[in-house]
Structures are given as structure tokens and as C-alpha cells.
Amino acid sequence: MRLGLTALRRVLQGITAARRAYPQTILPVEIWDIILNFLPDTALLRTACVCHTFNELSIGIYLGRNGLNMGSLTMHSHHLKALNLSCVAPSARSLVCNFWAFDVLRDLRRLLEVIKKSPNLTDVSLDWGHNLFQVHIFDNQVPYSPRSLLTTFLDVLSVLAHKTPGPVIIVTQAGIFKLRPEDILHWELGDWAETFRRFGRYRSKIRAKIGFSSQKCSFFAVPYGDDDRTSFPLANIHTVNVCSVQARSPAFSPFTLMAFPTSSLRLAPTPGLPAAALSAILPHITVPFLGLLYVFTDIHPGALSEFVGRHKHIKDIRLIRDALNEVSSFTKTTLCHPPRTLPYLTTLEGPDGLGLIDLLDAFDSPSVSTLRISCHPRCTAAHVAGLKSMLRRISFRTRPITLVLSSYVPSWCPPAVTIPISGEEQTIVGTAYCIEHVCIENGTFEEARMLLPWLAMLPALQEVEVVSVIYRSNRTAVGAERQDFLRDARAVLPSVVELVIGQRQL
Q1: What is the pTM (predicted TM-score) of this model?
Q2: What does R_g of the chain's alpha carbons equal in angstroms?
Q3: CB contact set of 49 (below 8 Å; sequence gap of 6+)
Q4: Beta strand extents in 273-388 (DSSP E only)
Q5: In angstroms, rounded to a whole number, what is the distance separating the alpha carbons of residues 180 and 167?
Q6: Rounded Cα distance, 237 and 217, in Å
Q7: Half-sphere exposure of 55 toward its Cβ, with a 13 Å CA cutoff?
Q8: Per the CB 3.0–4.6 Å rule, which of 208, 267, 298, 458 could disulfide with 275?
Q9: What is the pLDDT of residues 134-178, one digit of tens each?
């Protein structure tokens, strides 16, 4: 840089001497371009501080040399200094910035100044390549603390949120939430991250003590709405995408969308964001690398179809029922219209048989190999009818299916192996040739024992897996139940090749 300024000084001295010798000669602007083009990037940025004319020329040369322009900004964070020094505000509406690991706080402050002086800049995508608040980077070699980094980061989000009149929509692994722009400045860094900062080399022991895995290095407690006691976590922040959405619909107004990295998403209403509003904003949300999707039944079928159509890489879809309308929700519904084909979909989970039918009707995939039925506090006639309908539906499938029953015992199941099952039920279960593997999880061995007559009627069953829950105060009784289950399973399921027993202690 010093050599560049020395060369520029000598050129200026030569030009000054020439102008004294030939006072009538006017130097064209093109000569200044030629002179400045000889300077390296660091010298160009120093020259931009001389005057307004040099600022315009130097910044223009710098951006052109690095393949940038004021209308479309995709850059590394070390180029933010040029935008910060520029007297001309960028006209771009969007900015994509990849940060270097060194001195993130300085680059965030430069970004903040660029956003403040750019009225049109509303869409920003930031990528750090690592967890922004990863604990091990805050050591003695870093001249700033997690708190100062958090303050600057929240200032950036707050300025962007206030550029669009309306609420802020946060997309996280925990769900989709609605906030006020002023709520952002009240976000907090988790106390346990600061505990790691204080205790230094004892991090591994502290992590084991409080129960956080090494993959989750930070999280926020984020208040939203009027209830500061309600919060949701933001973990592993290595990217963030902020954009202004000018949505015009009766259910929603313009808003600022902030998407944090996640591989799973819950499409369910949250406080301040009912199902109608969620359906209205869903077409504007894209989650890269989305693999697990939780679906709420009241989402508009058209909005859900459009959303799933943009996420072809989904592997697992789980259906959620409304807890406030649990009894009436066990009816056949149109979940997604038009239906979507997902080539990588392997697992479907529903609260009952009808829920699985809804999923099979809505999402088609040749790769589906696992069907899950989640737990219910009670089992009614509607549950039984739904399970029968589900078995009829999958009886035409030719690919092997793994059926997972999560603490689910149908009311028509006999309490002992000696009580017969009706002829209709035997016929229905006997047609399910695709079910080769059944897993019973999160229940007790007694519940699994009650399912043995039903398992015995599956004609192609090869493997049975039972993962039971054991409570610390009931270990002796569980041991007896396990022995009873193994004795009856060997007698009732002679054709089963493999019987796997697992336990999970609570």
C-alpha cells in the first residue's frame, strides 16, 4: 500500500510539473483512470478518501476489478470496506455476502453502515461458513466478546426489519414465528455459552453436565409478541437470509422474512400466526436442504402443494393434528392439492390410519418404505376404522413396508392371545403382504404383548422390534413383563426370523 501511494505521489508531482510547463493543457479524465488502474486494491481504497472525484473513480475501478457493481452485489466480506467508503449509495436491492473467519465483528459493522446508507437494500443473505457464535473462536486471540458480536448482529437484523413496514416472520427449526421489529434488539445469547467462555478449558465437562451436544454451540432465547416468557431457540447460526416480502392478501400485509438454517420445519400455527396467515405467507418461504416436514392439517391445500413442490428433497413428512379439535379431526381431509411427487420421500407419519391415508393421497413417492402411527391418549372406534382403511390402502403395494407403532394399542386388540379377532379384521390384516417389519416403540412390554395376535396375522412378517420405555421406579416389574413377552412372542410368531428387544430408561 505504501508503495502504491508513493507511486501515485510521484505521478501527481510529474503531472503538476507538466501543468506548470504547459499551463494551457487540460488533462482528460481518462488519464486519471489510467493512473488509478496501476494501484493495488488497498491503495485504491486509500485514494478513495482523498476527494469526491477520486472516491467515485477509485470505487468504480475497485468494484469492476473484482467483478462487482452497484446494481448486483455478491461479494466476500473484505469488499465491504469499499462500499463503506463509497460516497454513492449502492442501488442494489439485494446483497449476498460470504464472510471470512477473521474479524467478523469488523465486517459486520461495515455491513451495518452499508445497509444504513442504502435505502433500496432490503434483501441480504449472509454466510459465515461456521456457527457465528461458536464458542471456541472466542479465545484470547479474538479482540471481542460474544456479547459485542451479538449486539452488532442484532443491529443489522433490526435495521433491515425496520425498512419494511409490517411484522417480522422468523423461520427456524422450531417453527415459523411472528415478531415485532422492536423485539429483535431484546434477543439474548444463551447463558451456557457464556459459561463456556468463563471456564475455558473445562468446556467438555460443562457440556456433559448441562446436556448440550457438541453440535449445538449456541442458541437464543427470543421473545415474541407481548409475552416475553415465550421463547424459541436458534441453534447453529452459520447463515441467515433476510428479505422484504410485499405480500398483498386479506390474511397478511407486507413483512420482513428472516430464515435461519434448518433441515426440518414445523408448518403449524404459533402465537400471533394463525393457520390462515401461515397459509398466506407459505408461498414466499423457501428452506434449502429441507429434509423433515411437520404438516398441520389446517394449512391450505393449495399453499402446501406449492410449498412442497419447491422442496423436492424432502425425505420425511409427519402429520400433526389440532389438539383443540382432536375428536373431530379424525376424518378424511384433503391435505395437499394438487398431489405432489417427491422422489426422495421415504417416511410418512400420521396420528392414525386416516392420517396416513391423507399423506399417501397427498404425497406420492416410489421410495416410501416406512409408515409410522404416532401415539394417542385413547383409542376410539374412529381410530379402529382408520387403521383398517390404512391396511386396505397399503395392501396393494408391492414394495416392502416397515410399520412403526408408537405406543399405539387399538381397542379391538385382545388382552390375551386366547381371545379371537373378528373374521373381517383377519381378512384385512391377512392381505398386508407388504409389511415385513414392525417396530413397536415408546410403549411397554405389556402393550406390545397385546399386539401379538395382530402381528401373527401378517402373512409376510419377518422382523419384529420392540423398544420399550422403562421407568426407574419400576425396573423389577418390567423385567417380568419382558420375559412374558418373549415367551408369548416365540409361541405366537414362529415364522418371524428376527425378534429385537430394546429399552429406553426414563
Answers
A1: 0.78
A2: 31
A3: 55, 85
A4: 292-296, 316-320, 340-341, 347-350, 363-364, 370-373
A5: 5
A6: 9
A7: 13
A8: 298
A9: 654 555 556 677 778 888 999 999 999 999 998 999 998 888 888
